[in-house]
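Dear support,

I submitted the protein below through the web form. The confirmation email said the job was done, but the results page showed an empty box. After a refresh the structure appeared. I'm attaching both so you can tell me whether what I see now is the final result or a partial one.
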Amino acid sequence: MRYNLAQLYLASEEPARAITVLEAWFGQADSPPASAWLLLGHAHAELADYRKAIPAMKRAIKLSDSPPADWYENLLAMHYELREYRDCTALLERMIRLFPDKDDYWRQLSGIRMTLNQPAQALAVMELMKRSGRLTREPELIQLAQLYLYQEIPYKAARLLEDAMKAGQIRKSADNRTLLATAWALARERDQAIRSYRLAAQASTSADVDFTLAQLYLEDERWTEATRALETALAKSGLKTPGTAWLLLGIARYELGSVDAARDAFTKASGFTRSRKSAHQWLSHLEQQS
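What the results page shows now:
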């Protein structure tokens, strides 16, 4: 009767009374079953008393021959509420072994690893998901690419992004193309980086994408392409380093033999503190040549 009464109290949203009756029942029961410990755990959880709920839930799981997934999920939620992330990690690893088809467990484990500042372990989890075909959604694929970049493995990031774009798993948006271009650049794959930045610049309103593309052209001494990219960057709003852009444009124009256009660019560059000194040096150089 006490056990049934405790169930009624909990169903009536009176967890404190349920706990009182249950504890009295536990004092007389010879071997309380898993369901009783589960009930006690739920009652404590209803009161947000997770410190007491967790041991009860663990006891219920231990006594059960085959505890269902939701029992583990409830226990995980309690650890998470207490920010016991290391306990979450151990529990999730156990849950994955028991219920390997539950993709959300893999995602949660990767997220907890990042919360614990363990990017290498988070990357390992996501790689396992990718290999087993669990990683197909765009946000997760992008997250994996970003983890590769964070771990200084840019080639894998670029390869993943490019393959996923070809497969239609990742949209060919300006942001995604820029991320791909960044990955190729960090991987020192200049041709792929230039190609990707060019496509990103066509789709993006960001002046900085054109500016980065121009820098790659300058490194290859492709003065005409660099000039075009810098002029496009300066025509857009929001460029972070306009003085440097004008200075580089002046250099590119000078290399193309357009001295008057170069002088105009250097004059504009001299109006910015960051580029003023170099711009004056170039202007002096042009004066000496004239």
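Response: this is the final, complete result; the empty box was a page-load delay. The chain has 17 helices and no strands.
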